[in-house]
Write a structure and sequence with these properties.
By secondary structure, this protein is α+β, with helices and mostly antiparallel strands. It has a domain of about 110 residues. Helix content is about 20%, strand content about 55%. The strands form two sheets. It has a 21-stranded mixed sheet that branches. Strands 20-23 form a two-stranded antiparallel sheet. The protein is elongated.
Length: about 400
């Protein structure tokens, strides 16, 4: 039976060749094929190596960028492509890291131009089975110059999916931060859902409290936009907002609602009602303050405050100003002026706010004593000021106030 060892030797040799083809040659071929296919669709791709397993192919240590769209690039530790026969069924990326740069509108224009430039060739070489869901986990997103030159958004623990057949994108992050200059805001929770018609972004300002303070952004297919913020009474620090960025010397509670709407023609409106509790401006006593605004106008030209009112401790007055919208943010500039308040009333209210019921009692006692001995507090006081808030540079938020008072003590 001399032929048997020969046959066995041939089978062994073929097995070795098969192993080499599967685990050495085929991965190299697949790697080059992936790079070439990506290049044909306008994607510059690098792959460290390819691993082949049962019913899957894994691309290890991947980096990619889009030709003609330098605002977006990314890397992934491991892209696992599940196969149905020889056809990709779905892909999952672990350790995905995306880098974005510039305003959202510039990024969207760049991506739209890239997509249009490569749509014809991709359509000629692709078929219906090429489009398959892609998901990712443990991701990280870094977005520089998001709102102005100094703003940076970072998202960690990012998970999501893209379904090109259904044209649906979903993404979540449980740790979103915004840094502008040397000031950091957050962390917040964030979720995004986008389809062919609408985009929705939900921001949880206090991720610990489910269903708590939030901001919801919506945009439809006609480019109509709405932004709604709802904040039950919460410390600013719980919302990831440092007190000093809004002109406060110490942490304060905040409560309010903000509603902004823009229709497809550009006609826009803003309604807001925001209250601060025990707010300390500069070195003054803590006071309760509230601002109510109603503004409208054209998004391209800016919105004028049609109605505005405020209270700050014993002071009450009116607010005027403008809201200017930019491609990468918005700027709110307000001027306020209070009515004159008798100095005697200011003293009583400030004492009441600072000392509570005891302050009210002491204020009443002081008034009674003054009447008995023939002294009274005379004059009145008022104040005016400016408030500026620019989303492109939140660290530059300013609150300026000018006091005008003629308070004194009269003998009668």
């Amino acid at each position: 039976m001399p032929a048997v060892p020969i046959v066995l030797s041939i089978v062994a040799a073929l097995a070795i060749i098969g192993i080499l083809l599967v685990f050495v040659v085929l991965p190299v071929v697949l790697k080059q094929r992936c790079i070439a296919l990506a290049a044909s669709r306008g994607i510059t791709l690098t792959v460290d190596h390819v691993a082949i397993g049962p019913e899957e192919v894994r691309l290890m240590k991947v980096a990619f960028s889009l030709d003609g769209a330098p605002q977006l690039s990314g890397t992934a530790d491991d892209i696992r492509v599940t196969l149905s026969g020889l056809t990709p069924a779905e892909s999952n990326a672990d350790g995905l890291a995306l880098t974005l740069d510039g305003p959202l509108e510039d990024i969207e224009k760049s991506l739209a131009a890239w997509s249009a430039a490569h749509a014809t060739h991709a359509g000629a070489t692709a078929n219906a089975t090429d489009a398959h869901p892609v998901s990712w986990s443990l991701g990280h997103v870094t977005w520089t110059r998001a709102f102005g030159q100094t703003a940076k958004v970072e998202l960690t623990n990012v998970a999501g999916e893209v379904d090109p057949v259904k044209a649906v994108t979903r993404m979540t992050s449980d740790h979103a931060t915004l840094t502008t200059g040397s000031t950091a805001f957050g962390p917040w929770g964030l979720s995004l859902e986008r389809d062919s018609a609408t985009t929705r972004v939900d921001v949880e300002l206090d991720p610990v409290v489910k269903g708590g303070p939030s901001v919801v952004f919506l945009r439809d297919a006609n480019d109509a936009v709405s932004v709604r913020a709802n904040v039950p009474s919460s410390p600013l620090s719980h919302l990831g907002i440092p007190a000093k960025t809004v002109g406060l010397a110490a942490d304060s509670t905040v409560e309010g609602t903000v509603d902004f709407e823009k229709d497809k023609s550009g006609a826009s409106s803003l309604k807001s009602d925001v209250a601060l509790g025990k707010a300390t401006f500069g070195g003054g006593l803590p006071i309760d303050a509230r601002v109510i605004l109603s503004a409208s106008g054209d998004a391209a030209k800016g919105l004028d405050v049609k109605q505005g009112a405020f209270t700050a401790g014993p002071l009450k007055g009116s607010v005027t100003g403008t809201l200017t919208l930019f491609d990468d943010g918005a700027r709110l500039a307000l001027a306020w002026k209070s009515q004159g308040v008798p100095c005697s009333e200011i003293g009583k209210q400030m004492a009441a706010e600072a000392l509570g019921p005891l302050g009210s009692q002491l204020g009443a006692i002081a008034g009674d004593v003054g009447n008995v001995i023939g002294l009274r507090v005379a004059g009145e006081a008022s104040a005016s000021g400016l408030i500026t808030l620019d989303s492109r540079d939140l660290a530059a938020t300013s609150f300026a106030m000018t006091r005008n008072q003629t308070c004194g003590v009269d003998l009668f």
